[in-house]
Design goal:
Helix content is about 15%, strand content about 45%. It is built from 4 helices and 8 strands. The chain has helices spanning about 5-20, 45-50, 210-215, 220-225, and strands spanning about 70-95, 100, 110-115, 120-155, 160-170, 170-180, 190-195, 200-210. It has a 6-stranded mixed beta sheet. The chain has a two-stranded antiparallel sheet with strand order 2-3. The radius of gyration is 50 Å and the shape is elongated.
Length: about 230
């Protein structure tokens, strides 16, 4: 093979390699497959496997009947009422007796007309005026912690809670009764629940003792108020 033939053969090989170069590519070490458009990414299991900062969400708590729950009561109420009443009545009565019965003719049912000077007149005038103004304002706030128990668990997970607390001091007795419905997720890890998160909340406070009796009206004032109510 002459030198010219070898040169031509090398040129053909180089040209063939140049034409095949676009079809060849190197495989990358960081190559990743394309994620489908509808894929939302790795699930919790995959995230827990590959992430060092993953924190598993707490499992939903479940409660049973007779489990204890502490209700934190912080309620504020304010009521204001104002009323004004004004009435006025006026009665006038005027009458005159134009004939006097004659005792002699009374049995005959006869009457004679008397003179104008002997006419008897009856007159009455009655005026009544009443004006009343009343105003009522009351502010209440109750702060307490009452421990109760779950008395029922509904199919949807809500719980029915009832709590009762009795405080007795000498002859004084105070009873606090709280009841309502709450969501299980609103109960904290310390088993506490805010009264604002309780549906159908009912708070009843009963005071008994000397202080209660001293603040009530006696029998005679109550009778007088009933008789002279108006």
């Amino acid at each position: 093979m002459t030198r010219g033939e070898r040169t031509g053969m090398v040129g053909c090989v180089v040209m063939a390699l140049a034409m095949a170069a676009p079809c060849a590519h190197a495989q990358s070490l960081f190559r990743r497959e394309a994620t489908p458009a509808g894929d939302a990414g790795p699930g919790p299991t995959a995230l827990a496997t590959y992430s060092l900062m993953y924190v598993a969400p707490p499992e939903p708590r479940s409660f049973l009947v007779h489990d204890l729950v502490t209700i934190i009561i912080d309620e504020t109420s304010r009521s204001t009422s104002e009323q004004t009443l004004e009435t006025s009545k006026n009665y006038t009565l005027d009458g005159a007796l134009v004939a006097f019965p004659d005792l002699k003719r009374l049995l005959d049912l006869q009457f004679r007309t008397g003179a104008g000077d002997n006419l008897a007149r009856v007159g009455m005038n009655y005026n009544n005026r009443f004006s009343g103004d009343g105003e009522y304002e009351r502010n209440d706030r109750m702060v307490a912690r009452v421990a109760g128990r779950i008395i029922d668990v509904k199919p949807n997970g809500t719980v029915v809670i009832e709590a009762k607390r009795v405080i007795a001091n000498d002859e004084e007795r105070k009873t606090i009764i709280v009841s309502g419905i709450a969501r299980a997720e609103d109960i904290t890890a310390e088993n506490t629940l805010l009264s604002a998160q309780v549906a159908d909340l009912r708070i009843e406070v009963i005071n008994e003792g000397e202080v209660r009796r001293a603040g009530r009206k006696g029998l005679i004032p109550r009778v007088m108020d009933a008789v002279f109510a108006f």
